[in-house]
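PROTEIN FOLDING TASK:
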Amino acid sequence: MKTLLVEKSGDLKIVEVEKPAITPQQALVKTIACGMCGTDVKLIHKTFKGFPEEVYPIMLGHEGVGEVVEVGSDVKTFKIGDKVFLPFVDPIGDINSGWGAISEYAVVHDPVAYPEGEAPDCAFAQTVIPAGIDPVDATMIITFREVLSSIRFFGVKPENSIVVFGCGPVGLTYIKFLNLCGIKDIIAVDIVDEKLKLAKEMGATYTINSKSQNIDTEVRKIFPDGVDFVLDAVGLPFVVNQAMSLICDRGAVLCYGVPEKEEITIDFSKAPYNWRVIYQQMPRKIEEGEASEQVYEWMKDGSIKIKDFISDYYDFENSVQAYKDLLDKKIMKKGIIKF
């Protein structure tokens, strides 16, 4: 099968590798589509936690959707023809895996096929996609589930105020979902006016262009005592320091995703006496799976429309160009690779 590879040099290329074999507890999946995200960018830059240079080359992609084409003898949850989330590919020979979902085939695990307590964590988010949902666009639901499960983990409540740094696909999803969860005091921060306009459409109460406006001044105009939360939706350490002057007493900085550096120096001279920094680097897959029902309800009642979050589609053969466009910041929302 063909897969998209990140070489030791950081270059991308499509190569031929062996198709994965399944165990009795697994199902083989033919890939339909895979979303592109910031995690992929960090893997390309070789700055993602747990992936030192010596593990390269790696297969890329983790927001996959595919169709089950073969099931193991112990599998009960999946049947041939099911469309499923999050198929992954384990290392193949000398090629390691950055989850490997931008491959023609991948694998899902059936949690009920394993003895109790032995199913891998990913199995609990490798769920069947309900009928009627476009399986290509369904890749966006992976981000939806991650974001909703993280909002629940962070403990943001309707009465809270929050500043969201970054209005890319993840930041926009946070803004929309915070709004749907009843949070009305949402400030969106970005340097691109077009993205701030999208943030307003998604439910941001206020917007700040940090390139032309002073964030501290603008936030304190609205919330003189500071905000309850500042969310870093871009994965940049400077946001934590920027947030110190924005949070109220006992406020918290929420960091979503894996930062490019595994250490950070915090200057809290402008912070209140009591504050927290909370990292959610890798949402628990069981919590992602549990978020599915609410996401589907919002989709069913029209509260969220998947197409609102997607801007670009690429054929698999053009995946190298797709990531060049992503790295060049030419993709405004979510980019999806189709097979």
Notes: The radius of gyration is 20 Å. Helices lie at 38-45, 139-154, 169-180, 193-202, 215-222, 238-243, 285-300, 319-327. The chain is about 25% helix and 25% strand. Residues 123 and 176 are 27 Å apart (CA to CA).
